[in-house]
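Hey Z.,

So I finally got round to the iron/sulfur cluster thing we talked about over coffee. Here's the setup:
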Amino acid sequence: MALTALITPWRVHAVLPRSVANGPGQRFTIWSQGCALACPGCFNPETHGLAGGAVRTVGELVDAVLAEVPGIEGVTLTGGEPLEQPGAVAAFCAQVTARADLGVIVLTGFTRAEIEADPARAGAVAAVDLVVAGRYNRRMPVATGLRGSANKVYWDRTGRYRPSELAAVPELEVTLGVDGTVTVTGMAAPGRALW
Ligand code: SF4
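And the result:
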């Protein structure tokens, strides 16, 4: 991959190197910063602003993921809205899947049709195994699995994950970091990354 891809900036809200509540198995989870979709009742409004979080590079995040191998099943990208930074997501996913046997899940507010209609967004999910797609609808909440609300759909691109594995993902996870930070995540408290 070209050096320019590795230095692609990615504004990130939070990172959790090991999470069991963002997909099957142990997963390196990245909360992207920035979302303009404005779903009413969004559970993670602190991820919306374009000035929040911190700017990392794709190469930095790829190295952080590979440092957890072996030991993780894969990576989950959530937010915020990962597909509002499609170049970074595309480069990141291409790298981690080329360099390790890692599954990739993306949680996005865009629908499958919106992703397929936009070359940049479509490119961002080219190496992704599972896309959880669609706006959050607060009138249709779902605590189990990864959908958040019942209108969202699983777009299974590779068959890597079985529906039973997705249904078995824990609803809530509390992680205490070595520096004393506490992260609460999972669909029962989605995206409440506290650090
Ligand atoms: S897409 Fe996700 S982060 Fe963006 S407003 Fe909707 S629920 Fe919130």
